Amino acid sequence: MTDARLPAARPADPSCRIEAVFAELARTRMAGLPLLNAALEVEAVDFGVWQDQWLGVLITPWCVNLMLLPAGCGNRPELAPGDKRAVRFPAGVFEFVGGYHPRLGAYASCSLFSPVLEFADQTAVRLTARAARRALFEIGDVAGAELPNAGGERQGAPLTRRAFLRGAFADER
Prior knowledge:
Layout: H1 15-27, E1 43-50, E2 53-59, E3 64-70, E4 84-89, E5 92-101, E6 105-113, H2 122-135, E7 147-148, E8 154-155, H3 161-165, H4 168-172
Antiparallel strand pairs: 1-2, 2-3, 3-6, 4-5, 5-6, 7-8
């Protein structure tokens, strides 16, 4: 007999599975390609549950992607490989593309950097990945009007994906 007052079990963090799958891809299908950054390795960064899905950043020697994976039963329908879906975050709307791997199941990814040749080392790309993950939850105004920030000051238009990819978040900090 189960107690209905007990919280549901928290789903297992997929970071280790993600790292194992993409490290294998790095050693096999991606090995030797000129777009690889040899200073980088596969790493799953800051995965946590958000709206019944796992959200985090995947770093590989060829890309840095936001990733969404199911976090349990009853969550959103799977996105078929290659299909696209707009996902709204406080910072704005981002386009995710469906993917599938037998050891991961269905997932969705949003490319932040590809290729990743501009990163000098794993520390630099990890700091960027963490900043990207945090930036998703900074309130943006998609219409472009100014909003007060937590300190009461006025802030300009939200950080767009293009501005983020050009490093604008680093200029503001």
